[in-house]
Amino acid sequence: MASYWWTRRRASVALSQSEYRTLLALMQRRGRTVSREQLEHDVYGASVALESNTVAVYVHQLRRKLGDDLIETVHGYGYRIGQEGA
């Protein structure tokens, strides 16, 4: 069951808590690249050991729900939402 709702392009989309926290961490740094490690820390806390692709999975789910154009991959570093994003 969705815990959060996000509206983009006049459509409301249900997000899980982890999806919402991932999106929020990126939106708070809009226009800047955020490393995978920083996202892990922001979303899950410093002491949680995650699988190597956990952040990528949530980014994929966000792209599927909100559109491929919202989150940009910065290869070898992390992810970014542009200044005009969301």
Keywords:
single chain, Arc Repressor Mutant, subunit A, alpha+beta, about 90 residues, phosphoprotein, 3-stranded antiparallel beta sheet, cytoplasm
Describe this protein's structure.
The protein has 86 residues and is an alpha+beta fold. It has a domain at 31-86: Winged helix-like DNA-binding domain superfamily/Winged helix DNA-binding domain (Arc Repressor Mutant, subunit A, Orthogonal Bundle). Helices cover 38% and strands 23% of the residues. The chain has three helices and five strands, in the order E-E-H-E-H-H-E-E. It has helices at 17-27, 36-44, 54-66; strands spanning 4-8, 11-15, 34-35, 71-74, 78-81. The chain has a three-stranded antiparallel sheet. Strands 1-2 form a two-stranded antiparallel ribbon. Strand 4 (71-74) and strand 5 (78-81) form a beta hairpin. The protein is globular, with a radius of gyration of 12 Å. The chain starts with a strand and ends in a 5-residue tail after the last strand. The mean pLDDT is 86.
